[in-house]
Design a protein that fits this description.
2% strand
Length: 228
């Protein structure tokens, strides 16, 4: 590609088309993971291998373009979260918050949403979500919650399964390490000379993060009560 002040020109349109086809194929395989049972890592590496073959670009050049600081950051982050999970710290935090609700179903719904949002802002929401899934399953063994949100309650899916991902997803916007895309974006920004610090992200992102679960809770609560 040639770059001037206002325009990017694509010379290899055929390669661009092939790359788009591979990307679409990877996304489709991601979506069919429950059917194919292929690990997303295998699909991603397979797509990268196909692109490497069809592009005929030097492997050395590709490795030089990889954002290694971001990858190393993710490795360290997942190690820390894994240790916290193994030590039971995340489960202890969740249980302490849920005990405050006294088993009230709708109070537990709001608690799960906000616990997921706050914790998800400082723990990458992918490992955090994986850790919280067994806890949400356990909550449904409580007789009060099971009666209010179980199969006989009229809900096809328990409201806890709606509130939990709502908080985890929106909470990821609260800090730089809350979700993978933010880390990648900050890494790319720094690569091009625009450094985004953790503190700067917090000052802008955290207030918006607090606002979005409020709106999401109100809308979701209304839908569950009057539409669902």
């Amino acid at each position: 590609m040639d770059r001037d002040e206002n325009m990017i020109v694509v010379h290899h349109k055929g390669l661009l088309l092939k790359s788009l086809i591979v990307i679409v194929g990877v996304v489709i395989l991601f979506s069919l993971q429950t059917i194919t049972h292929l690990e997303v890592s295998i699909v991603a590496i397979g797509g990268a291998a196909v692109l490497l073959i069809i592009s005929r670009v030097s492997l050395e050049k590709i490795l030089h373009e990889v954002d290694w600081p971001t990858l190393l950051f993710f490795i360290g982050l997942f190690v820390i979260v894994g240790v916290a999970e193994h030590a039971g710290l995340i489960t202890i935090l969740a249980n302490m918050a849920i005990n405050i609700t006294g088993g009230d179903p709708w109070l537990t719904f709001f608690m799960i949403t906000w616990l997921s949002a706050i914790a998800g802002a400082f723990i990458d929401n992918i490992p955090f979500t994986t850790t919280m899934i067994p806890l949400v399953h356990t909550l449904h063994t409580d007789p009060t919650i099971a009666a209010a949100f179980g199969p006989d309650s009229g809900y096809q899916f328990s409201p806890l399964w709606w509130g939990f991902p709502l908080g985890a997803d929106l909470g990821g916007n609260g800090s730089l390490i809350g979700f993978s895309a933010g880390v990648v974006a900050a890494g790319l920004s720094q690569k091009f000379g625009h450094y985004i610090s953790f503190t700067r992200w917090i000052k802008i992102g955290f207030p918006f993060m607090l606002l979005t679960p409020v709106v999401g809770n109100i809308v979701l609560y209304g839908l569950l009560l009057f539409v669902y």
